[in-house]
Design a protein that fits this description.
It holds the Pfam family Aminotran_3. The protein is α/β, with parallel strands linked by helices and 428 residues long. The chain is built from 15 helices and 14 strands. Bound molecules: 4'-deoxy-4'-aminopyridoxal-5'-phosphate (PMP).
Length: 428
Amino acid sequence: MIYQRSSALFTEAQKVIPGGVNSPVRAFKAVGGDPIFVKEAKGAYLYDEDGNRLIDYINSWGPMILGHAHPPVVEAVVEKAKKGTSFGMPTEIETQIAELAVSMVPNIDKIRFVNSGTEACMSAVRLARGYTQKDKIIKFAGCYHGHSDSFLIQAGSGAVTFGSPNSPGVTKGTAQDTLLAKYNDLEHVKDIISSNLEEIACIIIEPVAGNMGCIPPAKGFLEGLRALCDSHNILLVFDEVMTGFRLAKGGAQELLGVNADIVTFGKVIGGGLPVGAFAARAEIMNHLAPLGPVYQAGTLSGNPLAMAAGLAMLKELNQNSQIFDSLAKKTEYLHKGIAKALVENNITHTINRIGSMISVHFAETNVVDFDTATHGNNETFKKFFHGMLNNGIYIAPSAYETWFITEALTYEDLDTTINAVQKVAQTL
Ligand code: PMP
């Protein structure tokens, strides 16, 4: 495939945008080469500036559950835009999407909309601190909760890809309030709590980790966290930016049967527009301004275009709950096909999958936490990534990311993908 125009655009971009991108992982630094510039996308496909068609397994990092440019979402945005794009005043549609979200997700009474997953997680932690009147938080190595200061401590996703899981610019004071635990290691969490009794406001976790590749929670792990939180007056925050409205109507809480105290959402809840949200029981949410003392605000929060897109998306997911089964079946089909191709070619690997999230780790051992995720063979991943790209398949340009399956993918697309893996595996 030819990527001439993408490369030329990247050269221009680098003159005026740091690294040529507005979010680091897009720059292909982890895999080498120049990034692909997208011209448009429809359904399961991306069309780049060189005229190539790629089957997309990133899907804007998750939200395109129904595919790109999904007609009801596009129509809702266009109709809304004709009536004004931002008011900074209340609109009825905010209540409509809030009612729908609250009805779909277990254990939440109220929700507040923000503009990104980062904002959602940052605000959730502030709320947890304000509610419990404690300062420290526990996060897990390899989990990513956006780029707010408190979370850039052993963060996953782009942060680890670029070798800065602990970013300069985060003060020591902030860093010391974030306690770091090992994913899937309940004993470690217990130890941290015992050494910081009465000091921990919340445990924030991706209930299914997606930012060190996909790592599902071990049996009993989330239940164990729930019990620890209950006995120590700690709030459990589920970061459902990736899992929300994707693993089930009610997200990971529903699929895994564990309740969180605060839940955060990202891009899905805006149908791919810039939206995030955090939600909890009324008793917790009522601590937010203007009802309570915990301050949180945003000019563009509840923006009408984003709310229209989100409402169109959630309505469809709500009415059509067999989508989640269908997505899981497609993902299982892909898993089996990829595994067969890799085994036949003697490629050491581990595939993690849950619902419509899947990742291929080129690792010898099971991948259950950040340590085991980093033992994967990056050289093999790089070759795999470029091989897939040359065969028209676009996966995330880093070994520390998850593939997101969209309902727009047909079984023919999945077969094309599996055939590409078969071809690429012979070169690894
Ligand atoms: N939490 C999780 C689990 C994420 O995966 C991400 C980003 N992919 C974020 C938070 C941050 O979201 P955003 O990029 O919208 O700020």
